[in-house]
Every structure is written in structure tokens, then in C-alpha cells.
Fold each of these.
Amino acid sequence: MNKVLVLDFGSQYTQLIARKVRELGVYSEIFPFDTPHFRIKKENPGAIILSGGPQSVYEDGAPLPDPAVFNLGIPVLGICYGLQLMAHLLGGKVVPSAKREYGFAGLRILDRRGLFKRIKDRSQVWMSHGDRVEKLPPGFILTARTMNTKVAAIEAGGPRFFGVQFHPEVIHTRQGQKILANFLFDQAGLKPGWSMKSFVANKTAEVRRVVGKEKVICGLSGGVDSLVTSLLVQRAVGKRLTCVFVDNGLLRKGQYEELMNEFRRKLSLRVVGVEASGLFLERLRGVVSPEQKRKTIGRTFIDIFEEEARRIGRVKFLAQGTIYPDVIESAPVRGPSATIKSHHNVGGLPRGLRFQLIEPLKELFKDEVRAVAEELGVDREFIAQHPFPGPGLAVRILGEVTRQRVAVLQEADRILLDEVRRAGLYHRLWQVFAVLLPVRSVGVMGDKRTYEQVVSLRLVQSVDGMTANWYAADPQFLERVSTRIVNEVEGVNRVVYDITTKPPATIEWE
Ligand code: XMP
């Protein structure tokens, strides 16, 4: 009951809505826009939020919710496209605006009995829409306007419906969090109480219920997400969990041994180590397309898990550390967002997978996963480590992945990390890594012509990996790294610095 369901109509802000609700202490989950009403009812939410979306509600093929969502007796808040859906489906009228409204506006409040209790007049809101509500549906009143938008907010009192044309979830809407709080607490009667502690307790209970007496296998990648997944599942099912840590030959230098120690000694997980670098490299031979690399690696991991599962006997579940940004970027809900990359643990899963999946972190952002890790007693140093992609160095070696090229990249990467730590930069950055480019360039060393490989350095700052800024590193620092790489790594004669933000680039190069 004490949770909010967000129906996703394809807005780039959907995940922010869910997150802002959780920040207010109420658990929230995102569901596809067309989730049937009985399924919603089964979730028993205390409130429903209809997200924004890029389409127009009156167009053919526009994503529409099950109309029965308005008959469940559950308070609904529509945001932007969500507001327009409400107007369109409940008897009002939505039409295209003469001009798109995009950016800041001052909110003029007309009625303070509902959503706008204690909200200041003329406070700044963020608008981004091309359609407008021309006629309110019966039973609704107008509660706010802006200079350019006559219908900026509407409410109905019987079943409690609220619609806002602006985006309360984005930071540019100054009183957005207060407006959301009014909806959740005053109007929907929810109580704040969700925290990482209750998340752990609920997920543990859920995993225990789903798994029953069966066995689970979980792949550890060396990152925080898969570790937290394993620790949660271990809490739920104890010895019926076996973790598998695969040396795919695509890890950072020395990473396999260090991590194996950490898992076994400090965290007392049951971990089977599998040395499979030969198999991965063999399957990657001749593969240059990024998506094919990711899929090949995903497939190989699954083959290994299946083999280990056979050895253990009757394993029904595979637990994975998928987190929200992986889901949104690789397997978008039906709708307007495109596949950016197949994260090996999401989009790269083969058809006919023999396991049932358990993904307890699927709704969380990275910093939320880190908070769960802390709750589970993982030490700070491990938690603060930079993310490392499942396909490992393969997506940082452009072109073919060979043992020799992995070794070159590992060396360059080790030097970079070494210098980053020495300069005290590690904890100020989201990720730091070297990339090996598929080109060679001419150089001169000790009077001799060289024709060797190029390494690019990537240092980025980010809050959640969804967007990122390149780090304006000190030139002397860059020079130190460049000199060391060219001097110490055989086969590299040039180092370049990546100065692209995400978007338009991504953090990893493939
Ligand atoms: P991109 O490159 O898409 O990456 O901007 C965003 C964040 O996700 C990490 N990443 C991955 N993590 N499996 C993972 O577990 C993957 O396949 C994968 N691809 C990218 C990336 O390192 C960055 O932090």
C-alpha cells in the first residue's frame, strides 16, 4: 500500500520521478505505460503517477494507459503528457499549441486547497511541451496557470486526480519536491518510511519468497552492483546461493586475484572462481562490432554459468546486478527511447535462457546501490570504487580484442590509475580509464621512426552515469601520465585526451 507506481510514457525524466518519490521516503517503481489495471491493482499502490512523454495524446499510436486505471479509486498525478492524458481520456480536449513552451515560467496559483498548499505564488517551474489543454474534463477545476500556459494545473476532488503541465521532478522547478510531497502525503495519505534499511528487509523477504527451496547462482563482476546483489540473495537464501566469479581475461591488471580474496575473506561469500580467459578471447576473435562483442561476452558468461549450474545441480535462478540505468539504456520499455547499448546483463541475454532471473536492484540508481552496500556492511573503499562494465576491457579495446592488445591496455590503464590515485583524484571522479584505439600513428623515439598504437584517456565526472562531463585535468598531470605510458608501455607511441561529454558521447567508447 505504501508505494507509488509510475507509469512510463517515455519521458527522459521518468526515472527522476521515481527517484524523487523515494527521496521523500516512499517506495516507488516504474511500470510500462500499458500495464493492465488488474496488474496495477495487484501491486496495491497508494498512488499512481503518469509520466511525461514525447508524443501527442491525440495522435494515432500515442501510448495510452489502460483506461480502467482511473477507476481503481487510487489518487493519480499526471505530469505533462500525463496531465494531457487525463484531460484527453476523461472528457476534456487537448490541442497543439501555437508555439512550444520550453524553459522556465512563473507559476500563478489559483487554488491552494490541493496540490499547492503552502506553495509560493510565482515560483519558478520548468515547462517542456508542445500541446495544451483547451477544455478541462468535467469535474476538474483549474488550479494554476503561467503567462503562456492557461492550463498549468488541474484537479478533481471526487476520485483524486491531479495534473500539472510543468515538471515537478526536475531541479529547475523550485518547489517541485514540496508539490510532490503534497500529493503523496496530504492527498494520497502515504507515510514516509522507506529507507535503505526497509529496502533491504523487503527485498530479502521478496527473494526468499520467490526462490522458495530452490538454488540460485550469481555472477560477480567485481563491481558493487553484483556484490550487493549477492549479499542480498545470501541474506535471503543462505547456502543455496553460489557465486561465480569468472576471469574472462578482460579485467584490470591483478583484479581477479585481489577480488577473489576480498569476496572470500572479507565477505564470506561462497565463490567459485572460473578461469576462462582463453574461451572469451577465442570467441572474440575477429569480432569488431561493439554490439556483437557485448552479445558474445554475454553469451559466454551464460554458458559458463550454465555449466557451473549443472555441476551444482538443479539451479533454477540466476541473480544479476542490473540497475536502473542499465535497464533504460539497453532494453527500453516499448516506446520512444532507443537502444543505446546492450549491457551484457540486460540486452545481451540469449533467448531460451534456462534460468529465471532475479534482479533485486533493478529500480535503483548507482548512489542508491552504494547506500544499500553500506547498509549491508560492505567496506567504504570497495563501495567507492569506480563502476566497471560487465564486458570489461573488451569495450575499451576498439577493433579486435587479442591477448596482446589486452596486455597493452592493462599496462596503460594501470599507469593512469596509479597517477590518478597519487594525485588524489580518484574519489573526485566517476570513472577513469584508458582506451586502446584501432589506429596506428607515426612517432619518433631515439631518432627512430615508430609506427604504433594510440591510447586515449577518459576521466569523467557524473552523478548517475546517465550524463557525464569530461574532467578538466591539470596539464602537468596529463603530461606525467602521457610520458609514463609512452615510455613504459611497449607498442604505444601516442596518448590523447577525450574531451567529450555524455551526451552526445557515452562514457565507454563502445
Ligand atoms: P555508457 O558507456 O553507456 O556507460 O555511458 C554508463 C555507465 O555504465 C557502465 N557500463 C556498463 N556496466 N555492463 C555494466 O555492468 C555493461 O555492459 C556496461 N556498459 C557500460 C559504464 O562503465 C558507465 O559507468
Amino acid sequence: MSQDELKTAAARAALAHVEDGMKLGIGTGSTAEAFVHLLAEKVGDGMRVLGVPTSERTARLCLELGVPLTSLNEEPELDLCIDGADEIDPALNLTKGGGGALLREKIVAYASAKMIVIADESKLVDSLGGFALPIEVNPFGLEATRLHVQGAYRDLGYSGELRLRVRSGEAFETDGGHYILDASFGHISNPKALSDALHAIPGVVEHGMFIGMASLAVVAGSGGIRELPARG
Ligand code: 5RP
């Protein structure tokens, strides 16, 4: 199977966890989009769900395909969030934000009783950090924030590179009007310590490590579908 077919297979398997009447957080990225297409078919067959999209891009797709939407202001507590990831470690800690939606993704996942992460098996890693960590920052004071982020990594013993994400020659802007610094500092030995250090920097809005948030990973690979529950 191609990687796209594996993404669709994971999305299809995750759909089995969606029950009639659920309020759903709906992720961003190609795997989440495969899920939206399959969910739309179920809605067409009469399933009742209400979705909260994690990005404008996902909102547009849901509207196009007829998946009913609401917001966290109207429905602040969701039953289930289904989203993709850039990396999944054995404890189901995730790297997210490759698509730039990490802040809304984290807000929606946090508002959900359960988070299921869907992916092809290439996303499984022994430890986070092979994929550059997206760090969402306020444009105000960008250079000062960049120095503090570099300092936080250095103080924790990492060395590497921090790059402002650029698209079509301009700084990439998130749905919230923020910028993204992609941090390539290799293997993250202690995600919680790095998370705390990044959160202590005022210009950092959020980072793409999702620590202890996913309860289940639905992963498609050459051997079929695996459902990996969070330990503990
Ligand atoms: C977007 C994300 C995506 O879930 C992540 O980048 C995975 O994307 P894809 O399913 O296209 O591989 O975090 O911000």
C-alpha cells in the first residue's frame, strides 16, 4: 500500500471509534483529511456528529463535504478528538504542527475527553526530535524570542538549528496570526523539561509536543492496523 493508502486505512479504522451523537475534534493534515472524507460518508448515511475543526483548512473541507461544525465556545467539551501526527513515541507523546495548526490542535485535543492519533507507521519513532519541533511564537519580539528559545535548548544541553518557517518567501502565518520556529535539535531526551522551558518564554505561544494527551494511536502499516493504547 502507498503511504496515502495507509493514512486512509488508519482513518477508516479510527472511524469505528466514532459513535452517533458525538462531539468531535477534527484534526489537520493529510491523514485528518482522509478521516474527514470518510466521516462525511457516514454523515451522508445519517450519522449525527458535530465537529470542531482544528484549522481553517479543515473547516473548509468539512463545510465542502457537509460535516456539521460547531465551535468550542458553543461546545466547550468534546467526546473525542481525532488527529494526525508527525511523530509518535512509545508513550504516545507526539510531535505535531508540521501543517502549522499545532495551537488549535492542542486546544481542541485538551477540550476532548479522548484523543486518538491516526498515522501510517512511518510516524512511529523511538523518541521525539527527528522531526523539527514546530514552536508557535508571537511575531512581536521575534528575534528576542528566538534568542530565548535557543538559550532554553542550550541550557538543556542540546545543540542544533532554529529556523523561521517561510512559505512563498514570506514568514508562514498560522490561523492565529503567529509565526513558527522549526527547531532541529535532534533526539529530545526529556520532553517534559523542554516543554516547561519553552512555556516559560513569554513570546512562545505553544510548541508541538503533545505530552500525555493521546489515549490511543491507530497506526496502519504493511502488517495491517495496530491499535496502540497509551501506557499507564
Ligand atoms: C498539522 C499536524 C498534522 O497532524 C501532522 O503534520 C501530520 O500531517 P499528515 O497527516 O499530513 O502527515 O500536526 O499541524
